[in-house]
Design goal:
CATH topology: Transcription Regulator spoIIAA
Number of domains: 1
Structural class: alpha/beta
Strand content: 25-35%
Radius of gyration: 13 Å
Number of strands: 5
Largest sheet: 5 strands, mixed
Shape: globular
CATH superfamily: STAS domain
CATH architecture: 2-Layer Sandwich
Order of helices and strands: EEHEHEHE
Strand order of the largest sheet: 1-2-3-4-5
């Protein structure tokens, strides 16, 4: 069964605190949808933000394209002085992060409150 690429992932950005946007992602982050995550995160990590939080609690699957998107965002954030952190990855996403070692590179927290300012 194929999914409609436009509806397989939902990406929303909100800024509950100045300089600390939260990107909430739900659905499947795969080859067909990872660009939506990249399009939302890229301008935030290009500078001007203290910390960018990516909430992965609603992500049901993350493939290598989605993983690459997160790694690229992390590298860009580091180069611009912005901190990127992942929030509450769902069990399948956490497993992917652990298997690949990405959880050792990009900080992961259970909630926004756990991320120190």
């Amino acid at each position: 069964m194929s999914r409609d690429p436009d509806t397989s992932v939902d990406v929303r950005v909100r800024t509950p605190a100045p300089g600390r946007p939260v990107v909430t992602v739900t659905g499947h982050v795969d080859l067909h949808a990872a660009h939506r995550l990249a399009d939302a995160v890229r301008p935030l990590v290009d500078g001007g933000q203290d910390t960018v939080l990516v909430d992965l609690s609603g992500v049901t699957s993350l493939d290598s394209t989605g993983l690459t998107c997160l790694i690229t965002a992390h590298r860009t954030a580091r180069s611009t002085g912005t901190r990127l952190a992942l929030l509450a990855p769902s069990p399948p996403v956490l497993r992917m992060l652990q298997i690949t070692g990405v959880d050792q590179v990009i900080p992961t927290y259970p909630s926004p409150d756990a991320v120190q300012r």
